[in-house]
Specification:
This protein is an all-alpha fold. It has one domain. Helix 1 packs antiparallel against helix 2 and helix 1 runs parallel beside helix 3.
């Protein structure tokens, strides 16, 4: 019983972290747009990747509303990849036209 409660808490915390990270990444994209670090094309590409990931998360949650540990690990890898993409696009010395 203790193990199942611990797994539930761990799963709930992980899902909360997924949502928080999604929000932070969205803020980073918005900041890149505001500062001119992201061009419109880069922004569209990043937003598209973010939307695709969000659709996948919603799809995975259809099975009872919870994510399995495998689904959470896959989402975390995808968020890591998106995080790197955001960093690279913001620091590639391309500037949005002003």
């Amino acid at each position: 019983m203790v193990i199942s409660a611990a797994l539930f808490v761990t799963g709930a915390l992980a899902e909360g972290r997924i949502k928080e990270r999604e929000e932070r990444q969205q803020k980073r994209i918005a900041q890149g747009v505001a500062s001119g670090q992201l061009t419109p094309k880069e922004t569209a590409r990043l937003e598209s990747k973010e939307a695709r990931l969000n659709r996948e998360i919603r799809h995975d949650r259809k099975d009872g509303g919870k994510l399995t540990w495998r689904e959470r690990a896959k989402i975390e890898r995808q968020q890591n990849r998106l995080n790197r993409d955001i960093y690279r696009q913001k620091h590639d010395n391309q500037q949005a036209a002003k």
